[in-house]
């Protein structure tokens, strides 16, 4: 495959990790649970730190967790690209909005600046896909990583199936999701007036009228949500570690 062109502007990565993690049912916030002796969030930041297409990283955490995260993650692992911690908001979209405000303050608000948003709870993204993702953002302004649905998906209301959309048109959205700064900024501000919170950034961008491209990712890029996911992620991380050893 020919090498992809180097984009004019490197990406800024926002890592929302300010969720409550209720579905994990653990006493510690899930982003700080240990995976092979390292906190989950540290694995996720490491995917992007020192990547040649990344300029800066902003983890977004609960306001009350900032001191803990600074001490247990940033001071301990000394990442090169992390600029500073941002306080999250009530909904995921509020956390992303706080991240965008920091980019404006720090001068990363060029209209075509690629902004990647990656869930703190996805430590298994294959960063080899970043070059293709950045290339698509460069030409289209908006692109996300997703995988085709393997199961048949049902829309269920009050315990009853109301529709069975054709499986070959269904994809599961993952992250990173990347957008030119101006597109994301407009979409995030338009979302403020919507009554329904967006569960991902592509939904906000599409609702604002921008087409969003999809780049096929990998099943390994799971979002750690339940205790079972933690076991799977540990096994996967362990197997990749063995392969690269
Ligand atoms: O809730 P969900 O699993 O969709 O969250 C995806 C990511 O967004 C997680 O990494 C979570 O910590 C983050 N999040 C956030 N602020 C919120 C809610 C979720 O940063 N208010």
Mean pLDDT: 94
Overall geometry comes to globular
Number of strands: 11
Spell the H/E element sequence. Answer: EEEHEHEHEHEEEEHHEH
Helix content: 25-40%
CATH names the topology as Spore Coat Polysaccharide Biosynthesis Protein SpsA, Chain A
Output the keywords.
245 residues, alpha/beta, Spore Coat Polysaccharide Biosynthesis Protein SpsA, Chain A, seven-stranded mixed sheet, two-stranded antiparallel sheet
Q: What does this entry show, briefly?
A:
The protein has 245 residues and is α/β, with parallel strands linked by helices.
Describe the protein.
With 245 residues, the chain is an alpha/beta fold. The protein has a single domain (11-144, 175-244), classed as Spore Coat Polysaccharide Biosynthesis Protein SpsA, Chain A. The protein has helices at residues 40-48, 66-77, 92-105, 130-140, 181-191, 201-207, 227-244, and strands spanning 11-17, 34-35, 38-39, 54-61, 86-87, 114-117, 142-148, 155-157, 160-163, 171-180, 213-216. The chain has a seven-stranded mixed β-sheet with strand order 5-4-1-6-10-7-11, with helices on both faces. A two-stranded antiparallel ribbon has the order 2-3. The model has no long low-confidence stretch (mean pLDDT 94). Bound molecules: cytidine-5'-monophosphate. Cytidine-5'-monophosphate (C5P) binds at residues 16-19, 60, 88-92, 95, 119-121, 199, 223, 225.
């Amino acid at each position: 495959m020919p090498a992809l062109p180097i984009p004019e502007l490197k990406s800024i990565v926002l890592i929302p990790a300010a969720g409550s993690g209720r579905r994990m049912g653990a006493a510690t916030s899930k982003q700080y649970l240990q995976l092979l002796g390292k906190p989950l969030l540290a694995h996720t930041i490491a995917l992007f730190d020192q990547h040649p297409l990344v300029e800066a990283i902003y983890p977004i955490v609960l306001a009350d967790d900032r001191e803990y995260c600074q001490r247990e993650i940033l001071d301990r692992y000394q990442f090169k690209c992390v600029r500073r911690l941002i306080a999250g908001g009530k909904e995921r979209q509020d956390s992303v909005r706080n991240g965008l405000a920091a980019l404006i303050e720090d001068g990363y608000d060029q209209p075509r600046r690629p902004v990647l948003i990656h869930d703190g709870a996805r430590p298994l993204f294959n960063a080899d896909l970043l070059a293709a993702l950045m290339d698509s953002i460069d030409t289209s302004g908006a692109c996300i990583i997703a995988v085709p649905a393997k199961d048949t998906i049902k829309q269920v209301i009050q315990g009853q199936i109301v529709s069975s959309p054709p499986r070959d048109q269904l994809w599961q959205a993952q992250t990173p999701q990347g957008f030119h700064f101006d597109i994301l900024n407009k979409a995030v501000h338009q979302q403020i007036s919507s009554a329904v919170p967006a569960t991902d950034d592509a939904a906000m961008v599409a609702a604002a009228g921008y087409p969003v491209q999809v780049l096929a990712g990998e099943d390994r890029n799971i979002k750690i949500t339940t205790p079972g996911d933690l076991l799977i992620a540990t096994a996967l991380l362990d197997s990749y570690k063995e392969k690269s050893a």
